[in-house]
Amino acid sequence: MATPIKVGLAGFGNVGSGTYSILKRNHSLITQRAGAPITVKRVAVRNVDRVRKLVDEDVAVSSDWHDLVTDPEINVVVEAIGGIEPARSLILAAIDAGKHVVTANKALLAEHGNEIFKAAEEKGVNVALEAAVAGSIPIVKALREGLAANRVSSIAGIINGTCNFILSTMRDTGRSFDDVLAEAQRLGYAEADPTFDIEGIDSAHKLVLLSSIAFGVPVNMDKVHIEGISRLEAKDIKFAEELGYRIKLLGITKYTDYGIELRVHPALVPMRRLLANVEGAMNAVVVKGDAAESSLYYGKGAGSEPTGSAVVADLIDIARTADANVSERPKMPTTQHNPGAKDFADFGDTVCSYYLRIPVDDRPGVLADLARIIADNNISIESLIQREAPQKEDSTEVILMTHSTIESLMQRAIRTMQQLKSVRGPIVVLRKEELQ
Ligand SMILES: NC(=O)C1=CN([C@@H]2O[C@H](COP(=O)(O)OP(=O)(O)OC[C@H]3O[C@@H](n4cnc5c(N)ncnc54)[C@H](O)[C@@H]3O)[C@@H](O)[C@H]2O)C=CC1
Ligand SMILES: N[C@@H](CC=O)C(=O)O
Ligand code: NA
């Protein structure tokens, strides 16, 4: 028997309004699929007057989120306000009141997920988070259910729509970074603080949730190596293209012999890979499992209704399973804790191949010096290309691509190269992901 759901909706911005529109437009279909009606009973927002005009008359609108928690008829709270507080207090209060929670708030779950999931487990309620990771893509469901037979070995994905939109639009149109970022903000893709997007923090939030679900480990933001796209130069995007690669901001987690890797950084992806051809605000996630092998999930990772789609899917799941025994419901990330799981890896132990752009003097012997330092660190060179730097006749740029090596060795080699007199400026370091 399904349970009728009365929703208390916190927030009526991009995600809250998208959720409301879907529930209204597809009401009969959703009722049929959930086995019981799902209706919004109350909305809590900052701007009550604006939202009052946008919802049906029987929906109560107030500015106080406590109203959602104290209303005994509300059995699910949807948190779509974002940020840490009061979202954390709202979710913990809703759990304490025995209500299920659906949230799109990856920042909150990445920072406070262990506390929230534990509270929900103790209370026997659900905290559903499909919207928090890759928006409309049912990646949480795929990992928990569709791939439940697998030992997942790696997840690599484009999990920030804003960055992917910036990278593809800059490449296709030559428009400036700031101009394209402003458009992503207008389109509702960017976070309230867009530095979360462009500095890789939003991707890291989603990555720790994916890693937690796939490997049964606690969420831990301190263990993620994070680099964003703000310092990426147009010439590296161009050189990468010439060499047959696209630069994408990737979130990568791997279960390796030396621990669980967690890293977010721009990466060169071979153009022949599907991930290299994911454009605009689209997201895509590649999961490798021992049985299913490689599978790819693609879709809209941001936007009002695409994210609302994931919120409503979680509401339907809750309607179907609310009456079931807790053990019959899908497990939450940290509650499927795997006691045998490896610890997190040190970033220095990561194995990668590299793209280096090195500004150097244009004179004999310089390439030999670079090659010697690379060899002294047991790194093998895949290719070495010298570029003309037209503005300064006595200088040039070397693009050096390596085979796989260990991050700490690469960093040592870079430090040594950087000290050469013939190296004229900072060495640009990007990683390659072959995604085989
Ligand atoms: N915009 C997107 O495409 C996606 C957003 N998310 C996440 O969804 C959440 C919401 O994002 P958006 O809808 O884009 O934000 P938004 O800024 O468009 O909407 C926020 C809403 O929350 C309300 N609000 C803020 N503080 C409040 C408070 N103290 N009490 C009551 N209401 C309050 C505001 O009035 C507004 O209606 C964030 O956690 C975000 O990271 C997740 C996936 C995609
Ligand atoms: N700001 C995020 C929104 C969805 O999570 C993004 O750009 O992907
Ligand atoms: Na999702």
From TrEMBL:
One of its GO terms (molecular function) is NADP binding. The active site is at K206 (proton donor). The keyword Mitochondrion does not apply. Residues 355-428 form the ACT domain. Keywords: Amino-acid biosynthesis, Methionine biosynthesis, NADP, Oxidoreductase, Threonine biosynthesis. Pathway: Amino-acid biosynthesis; L-methionine biosynthesis via de novo pathway; L-homoserine from L-aspartate: step 3/3; Amino-acid biosynthesis; L-threonine biosynthesis; L-threonine from L-aspartate: step 3/5. PROSITE patterns: ACT (PS51671), HOMOSER_DHGENASE (PS01042). It comes from the Bacteria. NADPH binds at K106. NADP(+) binds at A10, G11, F12, G13, N14, V15, G16, S17. It holds the Pfam family NAD_binding_3. Its EC number is 1.1.1.3. Belongs to the homoserine dehydrogenase family. PANTHER family: HOMOSERINE DEHYDROGENASE. NCBIfam families: PRK06349.1. This is Homoserine dehydrogenase.
